[in-house]
Each structure stands twice: as C-alpha cells, then as structure tokens.
Amino acid sequence: MKHTEPQSFLGKLYKYRTYLLGLVILVVGIASIVGVQAHQKNAAENATTSLAEAKGPTPHEITVQQKRLKHKLNRYLKSVTSDGTASVSFYNLGPTAGSSAAKSQTTRQFYKQGKLATSANAHTPMVSASTYKLFIAAYLFHQNHLGYYDWTLTEKEGFQRMIVNSENDFAEGVLDTYGLTTLDDFIASEGWYTPTFVANQASVTTAYSLTLLLKKLARQQAPFNHLHDQQWLLSLMRKQIYRTGIPAGAATAKKGTVAADKVGFLGDTNNDAAIVTLPNGQRYVLVIMTHGHGQSGFSGFPRMAEITTHIQKMMYDPSIVQGLNR
C-alpha cells in the first residue's frame, strides 16, 4: 500500500492560491464600491448644505422682515412723538466696508442703505437751537470749494469752538457777514427746509432736513465731498462736549458705539443730530428734536438718550440676522 504525506497548512494555501487571491480581490472591490458610494453621499450632502448656506434667505424673506422691523420702529416713533413735543428721524447707512458686519451677505442685504429708514413728525419745523451750525459748516465748505473763503488759523479755531463747544460767536459772525437770505438760499439749494433764518426769530429746521445733511456728510457728498473737510467735521463732532443725549444712549445700547453729533439747546429745546457707528461697523443717522415737558438746560437729554437706546437695540438686535440665516 502506498502512503501519502499529509500536506502542510502553507502547502494548502499555495495549492488554493488562485481561489484565495480572487476572494481577496472580490472583498476589496466590494469595500471600495461601498466606500465610494458613502463618499459620494457625504459630498452630495455637504454640497447641498453649503449651497443652502451660500444662498441664505431669499430676497422675499429679507423684504418681509425689513417691513416688519420698519413697521415696529415706526410704531415706536409715533408713540414718542404723539404729543407733538418731539420729532425723530432714523436712517440706516449700512455697514462700513471691510467691517465685521459687512462680511455677512445677509447682513449687507438686510441693512442695505435706507431700507429701514423711517421717521415721525420729522417734517414739522422746530426750533433748531445750535444744530443750525451744521448748515453754517456746509455753507463754509461750499464757499471754500468755490474759492470764496479761506481757512485762516483764526477761522479754524472759531469753527472748532462752534462745533466742539457749541459757542455762538463764530456762527453769528458768518450770518452777519453773508446775511440771512444768502444762507437760506444756500440751504434751499440743497433741498433742506427754509426759511431757517428769520431776523429777530429763533432759527428753525426739521429733523428730516438735518437727516439729509448728515446723510451727505456720512457719504462724503457735496458740500462735504472733500475728504479733508468731511473727516475734520466728523472728528470735531466726535469730540463735542455735550454727550448725554444720543452718544450716551447709543453707548448704553452697545458698549463701544461712537456718535459724531451736534447738539442744540435753547430754553426748553433740546436737540441732537448724529451719525452713529456700532463696534461691528453698522452705521445710522439719528435726529431727535424735543421741547416741552418742562425742559430747561439739558434736562431733555436723558429723554433723547432713552429714545436712542430703544431704537438701536430694536434695529440692531443680532437675533434678527441669525433668524434669517436659519
């Protein structure tokens, strides 16, 4: 009888190597197919998510929310002006270029310049008090651009005192030199309320006219179209010494908010007209004109501060854009 040596394990593997190799290839192939399909599924899901994020809210969704917020602000402004002793004008300027607010497409669209602007009692003429000095500034810049006015050291010092300390001598000197009618003609040419200056009467203007002026200043438009003039006036307005109105209210709403403003106070009149910049780069124009309520000196400034705080918190609540991005 013939005996056969038992095969070793390695020998058996060698004998069936072809079958084993095929099995390995099959397993690897199946695993590869499953992996590719999973990758494609994840990629598709990520692409869909990215596309949704990139698209953000639709224009219709943004418009609807803008109308809601604007209506809400208008209701509030009507409530604080209902007794006729106040006028308020709000105009959103949109975020400054390169700011953190400007980096969000949704934020840029929602706060697009002027889309949230509204006012109450803003076309009613009110005693301007020293806010009229912004019209003086505009007129002098215009005259300088035409070559009819030179900024001597004396004029520069007087202009600075007029804006920072709200002193009257420089502004009254301009009115005496050029005449009330000349100043009113210039104001009318800009589309602002006239007559502002009437002999032997307190100067008057509207919150809307001051808003139009501040819009031009913020946007570097004539008569503030020379960068040096614009920056000089804004720097003086940021340094003006009466800070308990709009500047205080804006800072209360958001720490670090800066207001470049011009105040006015005369008898029971307390006014403030400002360009406000939030830490994230959002900007807006706000004009508040008040009288009555037994006001004297600066007693109406806390009233303006309270209105400012309420408006800024309402209009620039971060949850508004967050809600749109959901």
Strand-residue fraction?
5-15%
Q: CA-to-CA gap between the ends?
A: 86 Å
Rg, please?
33 Å
Q: What oligomerization state is this entry in?
A: single chain
Indicate the structural class: alpha+beta
Number of helices: 13
Give the beta-strand count.
Answer: 7
Overall helicity: 40-55%
Biggest sheet features: 5 strands, antiparallel
Order of helices and strands: HHHEHEEHHHHEHHHEEEHH
Shape: globular
Q: What ranges have pLDDT less than 50 throughout 5 or more consecutive residues?
A: 1-5, 42-53
Mean model confidence by pLDDT? 89
As laid out across the biggest beta sheet, the strand order is 2-1-7-6-5
Describe the structure.
The protein has 326 residues and is α+β, with helices and mostly antiparallel strands. Helix content is 54%, strand content 12%. The chain contains 13 helices and seven strands. The strands form two sheets. The chain has a five-stranded antiparallel beta sheet, sandwiched between helices. The radius of gyration is 33 Å and the shape is globular. The model is unreliable at 1-5 and 42-53 (pLDDT under 50).
Write the layout of secondary structure elements.
Elements: H1 9-15, H2 17-55, H3 59-81, E1 86-92, H4 105-110, E2 118-120, E3 126-127, H5 133-146, H6 153-164, H7 169-178, H8 180-189, E4 204-205, H9 207-218, H10 227-239, H11 246-253, E5 258-266, E6 269-277, E7 283-290, H12 301-315, H13 318-324
Antiparallel strand pairs: 1-2, 1-7, 3-4, 5-6, 6-7
Helix pairs in contact: 3-12, 11-12
